[in-house]
Amino acid sequence: MAVRDLDHVLGQIASRLASRFVGTFSPQTVERYVFESYVQLRRGARISAHLPSLTENFATERLTALAKVEGGIAGPVPEVLFLCAYNAGRSQMAAALADQYAQGRVQVHCAGSHPADWLDESVLEALGEWGIEVPHAYPKPLTDDVLLASDVIVTMGCGDACPVLTGKRYLDWAIPDPAGRDMPAVRAIRDDIDARVRALINDLTLTST
Description:
Radius of gyration: 17 Å
Order of helices and strands: HHHEHEHHEEH
Largest sheet: 4 strands, parallel
Keywords: Arsenical resistance
Pfam families: LMWPc, Phosphatase-like_N
Strand content: 5-15%
Shape: globular
Structural class: alpha/beta
Organism: Micromonospora solifontis
InterPro entries: Phosphatase-like_N, Ptyr_pPase, Ptyr_pPase_sf
Strand order of the largest sheet: 2-1-3-4
Distance between the termini: 48 Å
Protein name: Arsenate reductase ArsC
């Protein structure tokens, strides 16, 4: 896409989001977040064909999180962030399962300390076996706004790259990386994550109630 066309597309995204967040953020702040989000996602070459739509989703998530942190909007439900190194396997699987069980009672995020270019196909296959489709999922970098907005942060193998903030509830799940494993191993990882996610969602929804 030519630079002029790209600027036009990103400008349209910024205009839509500025209307959505009117009274919370200035148009200039929204525009900056849109362009920053595009630059961060552009590093994943495999998703370049869908970058405008992904940029809008990513910028919306970041601005919503920032609004909560700054008190611009209320946080009616708990927010959980699943973190792993590449945001291509474990954290994506946990987020998909959490969305399935939470049904809007928990806001779910996922990110990676070093996001990959694409999702692990075996993870998508394992989720698909349970009828869970994630057509709009993509590896995302960890950003401060989403991190600060999260009430619970679940780490899965991102090591020292996972930041630690005071006042947050942290859980570290020792779950192997599904990358490069055969399907029986990936299914075992899925089942392990599923049990942990069910328990976490039950805990969060009971606590918030």
